[in-house]
Design goal:
The protein has about 290 residues and is of the alpha/beta class. Helix content is about 50%, strand content about 15%. It has 11 helices and 8 strands. An 8-stranded mixed β-sheet has the order 3-2-1-4-5-6-7-8. It is found in: Cytoplasm.
């Protein structure tokens, strides 16, 4: 589908981003590249950073404006992409402005649909979303979970929009924290791994950029094989591991230094923090009330 053939539930929809940080930019980039929504129907806003908005406008040729200038009566899908700690202030500032039929999508880790529903007009459609920064290349793994008042058509529109930035998975909200630990934070685990691969390659005499390309292509190829074949990760690992060979030696070192444990703890740590953010916000709201 090219940029002039966008069809379906997104036709004539206006999508606005409230927040223009890295995650928002990644989604904007993927959405613009997909051509599913004309650029003049994409609005990017923040509270006061005009310089940042000018950068986004120059880079993606979408509409940009400060939050106070948003035409809320024209917005069909409003994507909340500010920092999680700012969610209550943001909801308080828009709850009397959003249309009843506007779909609110949040990409904020740890912020539950019920938390948002409590601060928005009764019956407002809220959808919780967890993409990752691979959205920029239309390769995100994105989870989506509906709130109490979200209709089937709302979900279809959200899935159509999010499919422009990668694969979309509909999950129960109870699974969103572990999804955050795996996919939302996942790119950072990969970059951390690549830091060490690049460093080790350089220490052995490889040009750092070459080591980086070798490592990235190797992992890309392995991931592609896993997606396209039916074997489990265990089976694929065993297939490439010869007894007493180089791969076995490398895997032995990973086991000795706790590589598997470290990966598990990284995912659990991100999952735990997502839950903590939700609890902290609920506690803060109770104190405020």
């Amino acid at each position: 589908m090219n940029g002039t053939e966008w069809i379906g539930l997104l036709k004539n929809k206006t999508v606005a981003f409230l927040g223009a940080g890295n995650m928002a930019e990644a989604m904007i980039s993927g959405t613009v590249q997909s051509g599913k929504i004309p650029n003049d129907q994409i609005i990017v806003s923040n509270r006061s950073n005009k310089v940042r908005l000018q950068e986004v406008n120059a880079k993606y040729n979408v509409l940009t404006m400060l939050k106070d200038d948003l035409p809320f009566e024209e917005i069909d899908i409003l994507i909340l992409a500010m920092k999680p700690k700012d969610i209550d202030k943001a909801l308080d500032s828009i709850n009397h402005l959003v249309k009843r039929d506007t779909v609110i999508m949040s990409v904020l880790a740890g912020i539950t649909t019920s938390h948002m529903e409590e601060q928005l007009p009764a019956g407002q459609s809220v959808i919780r979303v967890m993409p990752n920064t691979s959205s920029m290349l239309k390769e995100s793994a994105t989870a989506i979970s509906a709130g109490r008042f979200t209709s089937e058509d709302d979900m279809k529109s959200a899935k159509e929009l999010l499919s422009s930035i990668g694969e979309v998975y509909v999950i129960d909200e109870s699974e969103m924290d572990i999804f955050t630990g795996i996919a939302g934070s996942g790119p950072a685990y990969f970059y951390y791994l690549m830091e060490h691969i690049e460093k080790t390659g350089a220490e052995a005499g490889l040009d750092p950029k070459l080591a980086r390309k070798i490592g990235a292509q190797t992992i890309f190829g392995a991931a592609k094989m896993m997606l396209e074949r039916e074997e489990t990760p265990t089976q694929l690992r065993e297939n490439v591991t010869s007894p007493n060979g180089t791969t076995a030696a490398g895997l032995d070192a990973l086991a000795e230094f706790g590589g598997g444990k470290a990966i598990s703890e990284a995912v659990k740590g991100a999952e735990k923090r997502s839950k903590e953010i939700s609890s902290e916000l609920q506690s803060r709201q109770l104190v405020t009330n």
